[in-house]
Hints:
Helix content: 25-40%
Largest sheet: 3 strands, antiparallel
Shape: elongated
Number of strands: 3
Number of helices: 2
Distance between the termini: 35 Å
Order of helices and strands: HHEEE
Low-confidence stretches: none
Radius of gyration: 13 Å
Mean pLDDT: 76
Amino acid sequence: MKKAPQxxxxxxxxxxxxxxxxxxxxxxxxxxxxxxxxECTHRVRRKDGLWRxxxxxxVPIKDVEGAVTEWFGMxxxxx
Length: 79
């Protein structure tokens, strides 16, 4: 499996601030081929300072060679 573009990894790792180690393990597991999708639950701090729990599910969009070119997914507020 080819590696995802660094910009996508940088976004995914920066987006989830509350559980960085957990998120890194999920991303690394995807890159190892442990899963064909990205899924996790994490907290997001709103502009007003409140924390909300979000559920995330995403699948990679790949080119003909199997390299990830972008991600398609959904975020749900599950607070």
